[in-house]
Amino acid sequence: MKIKVDPQAKRFYLAANEWVPVIGHEIRVGKYRFSAVPMSGSIVISDVRSGMKVFSTPIDFHTSFLTATKEDAMYFLLTIIGEALIEVIEKHKDFDEIINKSAQSMIERLGEMPPIEAVDTDWMFEEVSDIAH
Questions:
Q1: Largest CA distance in the chain
Q2: Rounded Cα distance, 129 and 133, in Å
Q3: What is the dihedral of CA 27, 95, 113, 2, to 10 degrees?
Q4: Which of 25, 61, 60 is nearest to 46 (CA)?
Q5: Model pTM?
Q6: Nearest Cα to 19, choosing from 117, 112, 98?
Q7: Could you give the percent of the chain with pLDDT greater than 70?
Q8: What secondary structure, in 3-state letters, does the chain show?
Q9: Measuring CA to CA, how many Å separate 127 from each of 69, 122, 123, 133?
Q10: I want to staple 33 with a disulfide (CB 3.0 to 4.6 A). Which of 5, 48, 71, 116 is the partner?
């Protein structure tokens, strides 16, 4: 399966008691779309259509070292997270059905998900770069 990471940050919505806005990056794995969002010491990977959490990975020293720059973060999402997503998809032969049922359930429970929007986060990397020099 082809993996692609969008370097443009976006505002996604996770399913909880309501649609929760979060900012992260989109990872496409084959026909599937996921968001990768740093939250509470983890990177949370969720399905874009349903807001359903697929898995999370802790942000520890090793992870923070691998994601020190935007380019590093994109590579980490492409390789480590992208490969983990392929494993999840291949493990669940009914992955399409799981995602579709989850999306329908969330819409019934929470209403339509707000639209996903591009957001500018490059200023964060610029400020860190300025401090480092």
A1: 51
A2: 7
A3: 20
A4: 25
A5: 0.84
A6: 112
A7: 85
A8: CCEEECCCCEEEEEECCCEEEEEEEEEEECCEEEEEEEECCEEEEEECCCCCEEEEEECCHHHHHHCCCHHHHHHHHHHHHHHHHHHHHHHCCCHHHHHHHHHHHHHHHHCCCCCCEECCCHHHHHHHHHHHC
A9: 12, 9, 6, 10
A10: 48
CB 32 within 8 A of CB 100: no
Q: What number of residues does the chain have?
A: 133
Write the pLDDT tens digit of every residue in 76-116. 899 999 999 999 999 999 999 999 999 999 999 999 999 99
Q: Give the residue carrying structure tokens 């996770």.
A: 14
What pLDDT, on a 0 to 100 scale, did the predictor assign at position 95?
94
